[in-house]
Amino acid sequence: MPDSLRGKTILVMGVANRWSLASAIAHAAAREGAALWLTYQAERVQKPVEDLARELNARTAACDVADDAAIAALFARIGAEAGRLDGLVHSLAFAQKQELDQPFVETSRAGFAQALDISAYSLIPLARAAAPLMTAGGSIVTLSYLGATRYVPNYNVMGVAKAALESAVRYLAGELGPRAIRVNAVSAGPVKTASARAIKDFSSILDHVAQRAPLRRVPEPAEIADLAAFLLSDAARGVTGDVLFADSGYHILGV
Hints:
Layout: E1 9-13, H1 21-31, E2 35-40, H2 46-56, E3 59-62, H3 68-82, E4 87-90, H4 97-101, H5 109-121, H6 123-130, E5 138-144, H7 157-176, E6 181-188, H8 202-212, H9 221-232, E7 243-246
Parallel strand pairs: 1-2, 1-4, 2-3, 4-5, 5-6, 6-7
């Protein structure tokens, strides 16, 4: 559906570099005609985000989602400059490398709290801040992974964080639905991104999925991005509280 996001203002959070899924989603949203906002968490990723923003004619802003004041400032600026918001993409996840390298049973209290805070809780204050700007309704999309519901070796605390994230999607969908705000997740199959490389033996996961998935390949970032763009569009106006898979069908396998 060409121009499915024409006239909509979309905020994409979590662009780390050109190879991130958030970057692919930003490209898909721009292709569909959206007016884009992109955020960066720290100065070290500011330049690649600003380079992408120039390419996509997007606006940029800094936002540390662990800082409530930063979240408030971001949405105050969007409200002042754009007047409204139609879509929010939450592509944010983090866990300390040591929490992914060691067995899950060794997860530290601090590491658990940090992973849940950034990867799952952050969706809640972002939705709370975005909702008043979604005056004509809107769509919130986050990114999950099969490790939320299945044991995936070495995914560790991120699996628990994604489980919490998917539960938050359902609760937010239930509460924000009367305001015509939809909340969904895309469960993406394994993709070669900088964050994915932090998972030990990630290449073996890629190989396994490519051999076993019904489509006999891992998904392309563009396929995941297109599903996110669909959920942001009015074509998905009847879809909320759901987790949609873009993983070459791997999630249907029993053995």
